[in-house]
Amino acid sequence: MNELAIETHSLHKHYGDIHAVDGLDMHVPRGAVYGFLGRNGAGKTTTIRLLAGLAHASGGDMRVLGLDPRTDSPAILERTGLVVDKMLLPSMTGNDLVRFNRGFFPRWSDALATKYAEVLELDMKRKFKKLSTGNRTKLCLLLAMAQGAELMMLDEPTAGMDPVVTDQLLRVMVEDFANEGRTLFLSSHHLSEVERISEWVGIIDHGKLLLEGRLEDMRTNFRRVRVVGEALGEALPLAAWPDIVSANTGEGTTEYVVRANADAFAASLQSQGATVLDVTPLNLSEIFLEVVGKGKTNVSVEVLA
Amino acid sequence: MYLWKYWRESRITFAVGMALVGLLLWGVLKIHLGALLQGPQDSRPQNLAQLYLVIAVPLTLPLGFLGLRFGSFGVGRDLGEGSGSFLFSRPRSRAFFAWNDWGFGMAQLLAIVLAANVVLALAIYRVAPGASPIFLARQPVSMFSIFLLHCTAGLLLTGLIFGLTYFASVLSRGHGVMIAVGVLVAYSIAKSVVKHYWPAIILPDVTLTEFSVSPSPTMPAGFADHLGLSIVLRTAVALAFPFAAQLLLQQRDVD
Questions:
Q1: Residue-wise over A239-248: b if at least 16 C-beta within 10 A, else e?
Q2: What are residue B134's DSSP bridge partners?
Q3: Which of B4, B85, B92 is facing A84, going by the closest CB pair?
Q4: How many angstroms separate the CA atoms of B196 and A172, rounded?
Q5: What is the pTM of this model?
Q6: Is the Cβ of B188 closer than 8 Å to some Cβ of chain A?
Q7: Cβ-count burial of A249 within 10 angstroms (0-12 exposed, 13-18 middle, 19+ buried)?
Q8: Tell me: the pLDDT tens digits for B188-211?
Q9: Chains A and B: how many Cβ contacts under 8 Å?
């Protein structure tokens, strides 16, 4: 059995001159909670649409649960819970939608639907069009989660939800999916949420995956190295240190962010006479900003995996 | 389960359609059925033919309206409401959705057309059992043949308008009724223009009434002989629309 739940190679999606997905290489292991991060317009939603067979790829290859979405979309969707647009059938109530949905999925669970309705505090007798934005999102999630899916692909799953429900939802996701060996692939802007539940992270920008790897590895390896002196950034050829993500000078110091080998890098700087002030770890938010941040001297980062 | 969704959307139209057609039949029969019993016995076939003419033409309107309404339901409507991603992320092919919509819509239209014609036939049979109307062929036609022809004509009319509207709804994401009405109006205008400037060319009518009930002496000789071919061609045109809708859905990105 393929060990990857999702795999893309040089995936492209063009809308005229716009390259929404531009040579995406992504690897989502089975059983992982994978946070798919990116700025607005980075290509997250388009990627999910391609994987779900809702959009046609312009080029490249992709496999979801070992199947090709271009030819096996119904077989993939039978095993995949998808939340992408948060728009269901407007004139149906939650109960109607449960009734509608259950016929499509052989592993559908009414018990789970009831459980999630309680956990997410949803009024199932209300028509979808009369629900608030947050409650619409909850209902979309309920339908996806009660399918008994092997893989969940969620686009901004907590958008519009209050902190209490977001907390409940994340807990449910971890308990019912991550701990069950199922794969959870979620895109989000909320880095703290992703950091809380994800084991794997992929960062996309301008349709390309800039970084992919285990979150723990990123936390371990990404370091900020601060040294005295403004001219070091120019004196030190960036190409000589492929692990450098960014180099910024100012106010008498130079800050480097490296993705690996921080200690060796610091030692090298010291051997050149620089004074290293500190070497500090980065959290996911800082890593994300360094990788996709603008107005800084960014260096392309290769995939860690 | 998917058919249940279409039924939820269309059931009011179905009930209204049945009521509308029933009301129309009741009104027309109440006014004109008595005429069948009046006059000498040998004039009944002509009266019967006249009755079909009187009924078939006004029936075109509610049937056409129902074709438009039913065509606006289903996938085209979902795309217009923004729920296309939800629908097409159910594990079925896009062809499944298109043909289920079309099949169930046609089944409801068939029920309405059949009901209307059964009521009409029974009402006539009650008043004039054994009568055979005389149409263009100048020969008596059995009531069963007329019944079948009227059912076919009604189904082809509604099927054509339904298919056109369905395709237009998919194409325009929910604005199919306006487009279909526009196409039908444009076709009627084109038909009139062609008839005025090139009288030798006769564009086919969207209905089949000219075969079954029109007593017009201007109809070209032999026109009615092509009934079978005409039905096949009209069926092909009516079926082309759901096929086109399916192809469009399969090619299109859902957003």
A1: eebebbbbbb
A2: B140
A3: B85
A4: 72
A5: 0.86
A6: no
A7: middle
A8: 999 999 989 998 887 887 776 665
A9: 71
